[in-house]
Design brief:
This protein has 249 residues and is of the alpha+beta class. Helices cover 40% and strands 18% of the residues. The chain has two domains: 6-165, Thrombin, subunit H (Beta Barrel); 173-247, no CATH class. Strand 1 and strand 2 (67-73) form a beta hairpin. It is rod-shaped, with a radius of gyration of 30 Å. This is DNA2/NAM7 helicase helicase domain-containing protein. InterPro entries: P-loop_NTPase (IPR027417).
C-alpha cells in the first residue's frame, strides 16, 4: 500500500492482489480488503483540511528495511497519540485538498512498533516505501489507522499458507448422499446395541443418542452435545448407548 501513487489512490486505479497459492476462500476476501483500505485512505485524502498536522523536525534512518525514525513537533497538536498502523502523509507544503498533491511532493508512511499497544507522542518509527530525505518533507498529516485491516490480512495469509482444515470442511460439506448413509449406519448401530443390551429408549432419548453418535463419527455433523436433566431421566442410558454404538463392530 505504501507504494501507491496519489493518482492511483484518488482515481481508484489499483490492482487487486494476485496470490498464486491462495485458496479460493482467502483469495476472494483479499480483494475486498484492499478495496476497503483504499477507500479509507481516499476518504481521509478528501478531508485533508481536517487532518491533524505536525511539523517534521527530522527524519533519520532506522533499523529495518524502509524504516525511518520520524521526529515531529507537537506544539500545535497534542491530541493525537500515534499507534501502530497509523497512516501519515509526508509532504513538502501543506495541501488544502488532494488535488494539490503530486507524487513527487508527498509520500505515505505507516507507524510501526514492536508492541501492539505501544503509543507514541513525538518520535516513532515509520515504514516508507522509498528512501526519503529530511529536506524534502516538512509536514506530516495523520490520515487513518489500518491496523485492523493488517491483522485481517495476516490471518488470511495464514489460511493461505497452512490451508486451514476447518475452513475447508465448512466450504466443502459432504453430499446429502453421504450424510444419509452415515445416518443409516448410525441407526443400525444403535438398534444393534439396544437389542443386545436390552435397553429401551424413548423417542427423545433415542434422538439424543443419535446426536452423540453423529457428532463423534458421522462426517456430516461436527458439534458438541451436552446431556443434562434431572435424576432418572435416562442420561446414563443415552451416553452408554451412544458410546457402545461407537465401539461396536
Amino acid at each position: 500500500m505504501l507504494s501507491w501513487s496519489w493518482t492511483t489512490c484518488i482515481e481508484s486505479n489499483f490492482e487487486n492482489p494476485q496470490e498464486s497459492a491462495a485458496s479460493s476462500y482467502a483469495k476472494s476476501l483479499l480483494g475486498p480488503l484492499v478495496e476497503e483500505t483504499v477507500a479509507a485512505v481516499q476518504s481521509a485524502l478528501q478531508k485533508l483540511c481536517f487532518a491533524p498536522q505536525f511539523k517534521i523536525i527530522d527524519i533519520l534512518p532506522a533499523a529495518g528495511a524502509n524504516i525511518s525514525f520520524l521526529d515531529i513537533d507537537l506544539q500545535e497538536v497534542i491530541t493525537h497519540n500515534t499507534e501502530r498502523g497509523d497512516i501519515f502523509l509526508l509532504c513538502t507544503e501543506l495541501p488544502r485538498d488532494s488535488s494539490q498533491l503530486c507524487n513527487d511532493e508527498a509520500v505515505l508512511a505507516m507507524a510501526t512498533c514492536s508492541n501492539l499497544y505501544d503509543t507514541f507522542q513525538r518520535s516513532f518509527n515509520v515504514k516508507i516505501h522509498q528512501k526519503v530525505k529530511r529536506q524534502k518533507f516538512n509536514h506530516a498529516l495523520f490520515l487513518c489507522n489500518i491496523l485492523m485491516n493488517i491483522q485481517i490480512c495476516e490471518s488470511l495469509n495464514a489460511v493461505i499458507r497452512y490451508d486451514c482444515p476447518i475452513i475447508n470442511d465448512l466450504l466443502t460439506p459432504p453430499s446429502m448422499v453421504v450424510a444419509n448413509a452415515s445416518l443409516t449406519c448410525c441407526n443400525e448401530k444403535l438398534a444393534d446395541v439396544l437389542m443386545s443390551q436390552k435397553i429401551t429408549l424413548d423417542e427423545v432419548q433415542l434422538e439424543a443418542a443419535k446426536a452423540i453418535y453423529s457428532a463423534a463419527r458421522c462426517k456430516h455433523s461436527r458439534s458438541i452435545h451436552v446431556i443434562s436433566g434431572a435424576h432418572g431421566t435416562g442420561k446414563t442410558k443415552i451416553v452408554f448407548s451412544a458410546v457402545a454404538s461407537l465401539f461396536s463392530k
